[in-house]
Specification:
With 387 residues, the protein is an alpha/beta fold. It contains twelve helices and twelve strands. The structure holds pyridoxal-5'-phosphate (PLP). Pyridoxal-5'-phosphate binds next to loops.
Length: 387
């Protein structure tokens, strides 16, 4: 027996495609995985050593629901430094990955019938959880002709008195778009005098940026008080499986998020949190090396895709995803993704896995070796030639 509300809950197609790809591998097929959104690098050694040491030192018990104070302080210092704002450690809530911050923000702050603005195509969990709580999901199209940045004019068109939450994501999954400071300011100006509205700024890819700089909407006057910053360790430190992320929550709301933690997880794993301190305060050279490697692979995948008849691909400014336009191949994105998996052995995601405005595109992750990327490009090119 399943509750009715579960019918409104969506999913992340990446996990479904991964399962299908694994099933094909079991049958002996070679599959290149360009579907899942995680760095292929191993977690830096200093972080793993810190975790093992913490386990041996007894970090095997419950810890405070909002996170251990030393990690909350390290996060507050890091966010203060990287965003140029002043973050109080008491406004930090540590969670098992960045994802729970999306769930908690919507659960804690949004009532049935409220409107929530979100990017489309965008991370599918936004739309899923908005629908789950019975709110109205109001998509802002993220357009290729606007370099995959949210157009402030499109945004303003969707803003109404009923808007209670605005979700922003830059660098953006699935397009790799990065919102400029100028556009962020226009968005901030549009909501500046709204006391009844919050912004969830998903900055999980803030460090994975190749051109320009990352800007947070929280830096504009009056915005920190109404912005929840989501960030974490999954992408920057190649720690997806550790489950470690956080939210920086406006004053007075933090206790509610901790309460949701108590009701769902009790706390984030203790030894993982100790490793998180090492990640933030230890050497950062591995992060820099990984980003340089992503940049190299970006060149390979973008030029490879652009050499295929019917496919055009913009260079993403951040993340490790490309979102090529496939309309001229004659396939819709779901058919192309299904057939690429079965007939070319390349696992990719259809653009519509990220919302209806994703039609005409597929998402490929370049968190894979140059060798595998080249293999996949050849396999896709051959498939297109054949069909
Ligand atoms: N936000 C975006 C835009 C993402 O792409 C992801 C992961 O793919 C997350 C949040 C969640 O990350 P985590 O693994 O830390 O929960």
């Amino acid at each position: 027996m399943i509750a009715q509300r579960m019918e409104r809950l969506g999913t992340e197609t990446a996990f479904d495609v991964l399962a299908k790809a694994k099933a094909l591998e079991k049958q002996g097929k070679k599959i290149i995985h360009l579907e899942i959104g995680e760095p292929d690098f191993d977690t830096p050694t200093n972080i793993k050593t810190a975790a093992t040491k913490a386990l041996n030192e007894g970090y095997t018990h419950y810890v405070p629901a909002a996170g251990i104070p030393e990690l909350r302080k390290a996060i507050a210092d890091s966010v203060s430094r990287t965003r140029g704002i002043e973050v109080d450690p008491d406004s930090v809530v540590v969670t098992p990955g960045g994802k729970p911050i999306i769930f908690y923000t919507i659960l804690a702050c949004i009532n049935e019938g409220d409107e929530v603005i979100y990017p489309n195509p965008g991370f599918p969990i936004y739309e899923s959880v908005i629908n789950f709580v019975g709110a109205n999901a109001v998509p802002v199209p993220i357009k290729e002709e606007n370099n995959f940045e949210m157009d402030p004019e499109d945004f303003k068109e969707k803003l109404t008195k009923k808007t209670k939450l605005v979700i922003l994501n830059s660098p953006q999954n699935p397009t790799g778009g990065v919102t400029s400071r100028k556009d962020l300011k226009l968005i901030a100006d549009a909501v500046a005098d709204r006391k009844d509205l919050l912004v969830l700024s998903d900055e999980i890819y803030s460090e994975i940026i190749f051109e320009g700089a990352h800007h947070s909407i929280a830096t504009f006057p009056g915005m920190q008080e109404k912005t929840i910053i989501l960030d974490g360790f999954s992408k920057t430190y190649a720690m997806t499986g550790w489950r470690l992320g956080y939210g920086v929550i406006p004053q007075g709301m933090c206790a509610r998020f901790a309460q949701l933690m108590i009701n769902s997880n009790s706390c984030t794993s203790a030894f993982t949190q100790v490793a998180g301190i090492e990640a933030l305060t230890g050497p950062q050279d591995q992060v820099k090396t990984n980003i340089a490697e992503f940049k190299r692979r970006r060149e390979v995948i973008v030029s490879g895709l652009n050499s295929i008849k019917g496919i055009t691909c913009k260079k993403p400014k951040g993340t490790f995803y490309v979102f090529p336009n496939i309309t001229k191949t004659g396939f819709d994105c779901r058919t192309l993704s299904d057939r690429l998996l079965k007939e070319a052995g390349v696992a990719v995601l259809p653009g519509t896995a990220f919302g209806k405005y994703g039609e005409g595109y597929i998402r490929l992750s370049f968190a894979n070796s140059v060798e595998n990327i080249n293999y996949a490009i050849n396999a896709i090119a051959e498939f297109i030639e054949r069909n």
